[in-house]
Amino acid sequence: MSLRRHRAAGLSRRGTLRPGGFHPARQRGGFRPPHCPNRNCVFYQPSPDWRVGFWGFYRSPASRRPLQRLRCRSCKRTFTARTFSADYWLHHRAAFIPVARASVAGSGLRQTARSFRLSHATVGRHLARAGRLCLVFHRKMVRSARRCPSEPFAFDGFETFEYSQFFPCHLNLAVGARSWMVYHFTHSPLRRKGSMTREQKSRRAELESALGRPDPKAVENGIFELLRQTVELRHPSPDPAVVFSDDHPAYLRALRRLRRDPDLPELVHRTTPGRAARTRANPLFPVNLTDLLLRHCGANHRRETIAFSKRVQGALERLAIFTVWRNAIKPRREKKPGETAAMAAGYLSGPLRWREVLRRRQFPRKSELPAPWWEYYWGRIHTAALGPRQRENRATYAF
Description:
This protein is α/β, with parallel strands linked by helices. The chain has 13 helices and eight strands. The strands form two sheets. A five-stranded mixed sheet has the order 6-5-4-7-8, sandwiched between helices. Strands 1-2-3 form a three-stranded antiparallel sheet, with no helix packed on it. It starts with a helix and ends in a 22-residue tail after the last helix.
């Protein structure tokens, strides 16, 4: 190749990339980044004052053509268009969307790994990435709505466990009464209850002595945060918020705390006995249906399964994927395809596909994610039985 062609391609005489390379064909109709991808940059928030310049090319093993590298003029961070894709820094990029799709199809991690000829650790990393993206995607969808939701909603705790049956927990869900849309979820650890043998009681006492007992107000705090975030979506509507639940005493205490907040609208609480028939006439049918789908589509929540969640953080990430799938991708009714729960609630004009949900990288901002979800995003919800052997999302660039 001649020297002129090397320079046109952004390469030096030896074929290596040189800073400041220019390729007119690669810039034509080129990529325009919305903001700087560096979390420590002042232009991490989109701003019209942000300036970016070209900075040579980057040759990737997965791409036949060199990629145009850009440079932030404020923090001097360089990046490419791929930095803003959802599969950024993933080795098995082609399996990213299929793995997310398999997580709501009833497959466990190892079954999914065998299907795509991957290791189960790779599948877990893909699900963690997809779960983080779905957290931000769902929150942006409900916060950017032109009108606030006016429908009542039902809430309840979906009981499951992590690591072993000695560590049960509640996944608290708030679901629209008419649209069946999952608005929000939180997590509450529990203490094992129910009938136990003498050996099981002794084992529970040993674990609580070594690891401590769960917070007895965990359910109350989880429901309080769940309702506060869901009711805030109705702002600035002056109409009272109607909520349905069963007669759990922790729910009543959480509602009393919410009524003391002067910034929230009036709450009208209607209870239904927990032992009432779970039919279509039951006011808790929307949340009961969500529980049914969550247990049916998630292998980690089935009865008497070996695919249970080993870490609650993994269960929360899969729940985020399920939430986006249930709201924006899956039809609201199986016999009437087309309308999704988000369409019935007025958030979307049409159903989405996995490619549309997991196409762009969703950058987290603390102002957009509620406090529990901010901890979920960074993987800071630890499993007590694992002790210090916990991993968090501490990536600097590929977060």
